[in-house]
UniProtKB/TrEMBL annotation:
The chain crosses the membrane at residues 41-63. It is an enzyme of class 7 (translocase). Residues 141-154 have a biased composition (Acidic residues). PROSITE patterns: CYTC (PS51007). It catalyses: a quinol + 2 Fe(III)-[cytochrome c](out) = a quinone + 2 Fe(II)-[cytochrome c](out) + 2 H(+)(out). It is found in: Mitochondrion inner membrane. This is quinol--cytochrome-c reductase. One of its GO terms (biological process) is mitochondrial electron transport, ubiquinol to cytochrome c. It comes from Eremomyces bilateralis CBS 781.70. Residues 99-252 form the Cytochrome c domain. Belongs to the cytochrome c family.
Length: 327
């Protein structure tokens, strides 16, 4: 009966249908001793086609989930993938190299500060990490800031204090755009966190300007070719050249050295808590593992009486049970 209704259902599929019909006719013509054979054939067909369907479905689902990715941009538009450099300060047991931070801050001040702000960094945060209190105070006093309104309501200028933030190079975004062919130099405080590839990307960007754009590359007017920048045309020209700054510690100021130092400095600007965070992480791991071991020990200690207990069942000795009926 089941075989017949199946055959009816699969009317459209030729081979399966004839097979089923054969099976049903055999089932109806053969004697009652072989009814299960036809059922077996139909069951096999159903199982095979079911398994095939599940298999095809699984492959289709997997392809849909993990097949080729649909990208909004071509790889060229995305920018060349930055090389992964073994940054010392990114290693789990390492801290920022404060001498490098000092050099990086010097590069920022002498080169990048002409166009880029670093608006989240107050002078006070430089104290103890990059310079001494006196150096930071002197640096702050070089710039003027608005004071509180006086009794007449006028706002006067006063020299900077440790609590002030590093000054912006431009009055506002419009002025910044006007000075840079319409492109806004982004604030660098969080740029290491704000760009895919972090330190690697910024280092590659700063050192990745070729002498000449490769043949065939279309560089729009006013832009510079840089393969690491998404779209390859960047408004910022190459800024780092060998010997551009003079390091006070005598480190040779090659462009890659300056790029490395300024990137490490920008990483500090974005994550000033990094050293402490790593240290706290290790403390948590150490204390956590000690507590874990202790809790394992306490558990075993508490359970030992239960775990080593032996339960024995001694059935009561009595009259033999009745013999079962029918025996
Ligand atoms: C002459 C001005 C100028 C100087 C100096 C300069 N930049 Fe730029 N920078 C720009 C402009 C303009 C942009 C925006 C580029 C664009 O959007 O096409 C930019 C963009 C950037 C970006 C963002 C790129 C991105 O992915 O969006 C980074 C990072 C950067 N600059 C780092 C630096 C560093 C580090 C220095 C110092 C070593 C520096 N810049 C010096 C003008 C400058």
């Amino acid at each position: 009966m089941l075989a017949r209704s199946c055959a009816r259902a699969t009317r459209s599929s030729g081979p399966i249908r004839s097979l089923l019909q054969k099976a049903t006719s055999r089932a109806s013509s053969t004697s009652a001793s072989e009814p299960s054979k036809a059922g077996n054939v139909v069951g096999n067909i159903l199982a095979t086609s079911g398994a095939t369907l599940v298999g095809v479905g699984a492959v289709a689902w997997y392809y849909n989930q993990y097949g080729p990715r649909a990208l909004a941009m071509t790889p060229a538009e995305e920018g060349l993938h930055a090389t992964a450099y073994p940054w010392e300060h990114e290693k789990l047991f390492k801290t920022f190299d404060h001498q490098a931070l000092r050099r990086g801050f010097q590069v920022y001040q002498e080169v990048c500060a002409a166009c880029h702000s670093l608006s989240r960094i107050p002078y006070r945060s430089l104290v103890g990490t990059i310079m001494t209190v006196d150096e930071a105070k002197t640096l702050a006093e070089e710039n003027e800031y608005d004071s509180e309104p006086n009794d007449e309501g006028d706002i006067e200028k006063r020299p900077g204090k440790l609590a002030d933030y590093l000054p912006d190079p431009y009055k506002n975004d419009e002025a910044a755009r006007a000075a840079n062919q319409g492109a806004l130099p982004p604030d660098l405080s969080l740029i290491v966190k704000g760009r895919h590839g972090g330190c690697n990307y910024i280092f590659s960007l700063l050192t990745g300007y070729p002498e000449e754009p490769p043949p065939g590359a279309a560089v729009p007017e006013g832009l510079n070719f840089n393969p690491y920048f998404p779209g390859t045309g960047i408004a910022m020209a190459r800024v780092l050249y060998d010997g551009l700054v003079e390091y006070e510690d005598g480190t040779p100021a090659t462009s890659s050295q300056m790029a490395k130092d300024v990137v490490e400095f920008l990483n500090w600007a974005a994550e000033p808590e990094m050293d402490q965070r790593k240290r706290m992480g290790w403390e948590v791991m150490a204390i956590g593992s000690a507590l874990m071991l202790l809790s394992v020990w306490v558990k075993r200690y508490k359970w030992v009486g239960i775990k080593t207990r032996k339960l024995v069942y001694n059935p009561p000795v009595g009259p033999r049970s009745r013999t079962p009926r029918g025996a």
